[in-house]
Design brief:
alpha+beta, Aminopeptidase, four-stranded mixed β-sheet, 3 helices, 4 strands, globular
Length: 108
Amino acid sequence: MSEEGATAGLPASWCSVCVRVDGELVGMGRVVGDGGLFLFVVDIAVTPAWQGRGLGRRIMEALMARVHEAAQPRTMVGLIADGTAFRLYEKFGFRQVAPAAHGMLLRL
């Protein structure tokens, strides 16, 4: 990601969560979207030294609490799971859509 992209994109998040330990950012997650029809979970990240301690789950818990509290009825919430991360997201009700649909990505 570029610094310019982060400068423009981060403030435009629908909601976000940061985890800090002694002031150091060790994890984060965001939801982006139009706030009415579509939301997308992005940037679930935990620094390597803090992985395996449940921070990813806690970030998702906080984000999903906000989604359930504030999103409009029938909002479509999506994400792209890297590797085996789909196991975490399944705990929050997300389901793989293949073969009925396929996630696609264009990176500029």
